[in-house]
Amino acid sequence: MAVNDSTLICRIELPAELESLPAFNEKVTQCAVECGLSEHKIMSMELALEEAIVNIIKYASTDPEGTVHIDCSMDGEKYFTITIIDNGPPFDPLKRAAPDIDAGIDERAVGGLGIFLIKEMTDAVSYRRDDNKNILTIKIEKD
Amino acid sequence: MDISTRKEKEITIVTVSGRIDAITAPEFEANLDGLITSGERTLLINLSGLGYISSAGLRSILSSAKKLKGLSGEILFTGLQGPVEEVFQISGFKSIFKIFPSETEALATF
């Protein structure tokens, strides 16, 4: 395990509902700009963030009072890190089977692409359950 | 998100700009559904003004494409660029849909 050299840049907590998406996006994007991420990396970040939040709203959060808490930090000089925390029941999104991206229109399942996109568009993604919370960590390398 | 439609020959050209995300995707899908219900069978979707698409948008596209396929129709694309092209590439959509470099080239095949 590397020495933890993580600097918190911003923190935001909002209700676990779709309407919170623009505010999360605005705050985290602003944070990513401050950290010097390129436009291309910010787009990847934005997509990963939406997919992660939508996933929590769809599958994890059953409590109408549920919230999503996001911390943005820099791991050293290299990785912009988004930590997404919700207090819903245990749900590891990374366990979802990858979609068959070679299937034709008829065979192809509608959905299942969100987590796949997070994995493909970012440099590292991990899940852990801690203190009755789901914690998803997404890392994007600065270029 | 802005959507406009026009018809050339038997092709319905749907130009969508802005963002198709989890919030706007239902409206986009409802729009495509409306066209399918009113009898349109070939939709050429121009994405040149689209800056962002997430899995919610891909889901809407696939869902409409499945409905159309059952009716012997199809969805074609043009104007793929930037982040939207990247998402199409990664998700495999670039290989399951017909994609044309321009509207003119798409229309010329009909």
- Whole-number mean pLDDT of chain A: 92
Terminal CA distance of chain A: 23 Å
Percent range for β-strand residues of chain A: 25-35%
- Amount of helix of chain B: 40-55%
Q: Runs of chain B with pLDDT <50, length 5+?
A: none
Overall strand count of chain A: 5
Q: How would a textbook summarize the main sheet of chain A?
A: 5 strands, antiparallel
Return Rg of chain B in Å.
Answer: 13 Å
Widest β-sheet, arrangement of strands of chain A: 1-2-3-5-4
Hey, roughly how much beta strand do the residues of chain B contain?
Answer: 25-35%
Order of helical and strand elements of chain A? EHHEEHEE
Structural class by SSE content of chain B: alpha/beta
- Ranges of chain A with pLDDT <50 over ≥5 residues? none
Question: Tell me, what's the shape of chain B?
Answer: globular
Notable characteristics:
heterodimer, A: 143 residues, alpha+beta, five-stranded antiparallel sheet, globular, B: 110 residues, alpha/beta, six-stranded mixed sheet, 5 helices, 6 strands
